[in-house]
Design a protein that fits this description.
The chain is 54% helix and 9% strand. By secondary structure, the chain is mostly helical. It has one domain: Orthogonal Bundle (Arc Repressor Mutant, subunit A). It has a three-stranded antiparallel sheet. The N and C termini lie far apart (33 Å).
Length: 117
Amino acid sequence: MDHVPLDDYVLDVLMPDLVGHDHSPSAFLVYVALWALLYRAGQRSIAVSLQDLSVRTGLSKSAVQLSLRTLKRRGLVKVTKASATAIPQYELVRHWLRRRIGEKRGDSPPPQARGRR
């Protein structure tokens, strides 16, 4: 059985933030599902349909759509489409990695990361 590693930040900060603060446990499930798909594919972005995300998470398609809206609003997911009817391409935005690299170099965190937990 393969294991998918998660950054500590995802469990220690992102989960309580999405579930507790945003009251959106479904957004956390969608984020983890995308994380697993991307990790297994070894890619930075992946095309996946709402139906596939719905099946993978056990959520309805409308719950997946709402979750993706939350993740986009929070700047955690980038979504691109080649055309209006194309399957969306998803990329996770892991802002905490840029912050860690900046801290190691002595730079300040990016403006959007300041003030967040």
